[in-house]
Amino acid sequence: MGKTILIADDEPEIVALLRLFLEVEGYSVVEASNGKEALAYIQNISIDLAVIDIMMPELDGYQLIKLIRKEYKLPIIILSAKNQETDKILGLGIGADDFISKPFSSMEVLARVQAQLRRTYEFNEADPVALDSQTCVGDMALDHHSCMLYKRGQPISLSSIEYKLLKLFMDAPGRIYTKKQIFEKAWSDQYFADDNTIMVQISRLRDKIEDQPRNPMYIKTIRGLGYRFAKKDELDEN
Fold it and tell me: How many domains are contained in the chain?
């Protein structure tokens, strides 16, 4: 069955154009002209991915994304005329998975949608035996069936990117990963020196799992090289 894409944008011409390209590829499309309408769709029907504008009436895109991320893990792509670096960092920081600036290429949007769907749902098609297992380091247990992290037995909900980052790190505690390696493994895409995206996602992950995010115990920054996850003996010392 084809995936269902939500387009939340108050510009009818943009919605119509994106609908055309997405439906040709076999996707079902749901339209919302404001944030409240978009949130209602997400709460009441199964949405696989959302393309969200920032400047919308009633509930803007930033507010909408924050509300979505309280309960849902679906991938979110921001499509906005607000294209300053600070806008992109803010959007990624509150939970968006990608950011596309207006004006845009419809083919680029389609490619980004397809990439996010692959990244988000591909692990559901993995080996069922592997999905039943957990990766444990110290007091952390990453469940590959639910894509949930358990810290000292307490569940922590993860986005698809956060899950992939933690799996990468926890599968090889102590190994240093460069930013290029992290991006290409977690985002399944070629690295184009997109340091902001990595830094924002690492910061979000630290906020979730660290007791003191500004003094991280689990995800260590290796200056000039990249990041690594603490080894079990390091964690046992704390």
Answer: 2
